[in-house]
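Q: What would this chain look like folded?
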Amino acid sequence: MPCMRTPTGSPSRRGPARSSPGGAHRRERRDRRGLCLALVLSPVVANLHAMTPTESAIPSTFQAVGQTTLRFLGFKIYDARLLAPQGAALDAFEQHPFALELTYARRLEGKLIAERSLIEMRRIGNFSDAQAQRWMAWMQQAFPDVNTGDRLTGVHAGKGRCRFFHNAQLRGEFDDATFTRLFFGIWLHPQTSAPALRRALIGADR
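A: My prediction, written as structure tokens:
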């Protein structure tokens, strides 16, 4: 962007600067560059403070169980990693605490992630329209738009509770056993639409 260009060369050493239309124009451009740079950097600094997590997304006692990559028509969508205490296999995933971490390889809208999640949840089990509306509202709160390199992490905390993080920042915490089971079933239930991905995540191929 024009406002990010930096001047080249070194300052003049010929003595005091003379007042001229050209000099005033250069000073105006320099001031404008400085203002633009400040406007660009200010939100970056603010975001660094805002992104400092108050709690870790993945408990330190969790170990990697399995990991894999989801592709669609040859395009990489995300890398997926499943973690759990002692790295145990998770055939009966709803009975154990664990964390599922997705690292995205492309930009996706949070609303589309939520809508697709609801479609995939219907493969795992039935639920009412009222539940669908409530869960869609939850997921739109929990899932922001993601860019390349962003991480969305879902933590299955046990007893029907789950937490969702975006880049280690808590986005939502829900206490609904049916939602929790169906949502994580997208990846871990035997009826998943991606059985090879499931096998890799639960360590079945090891």
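The first strand starts at residue 62 and ends at 72.
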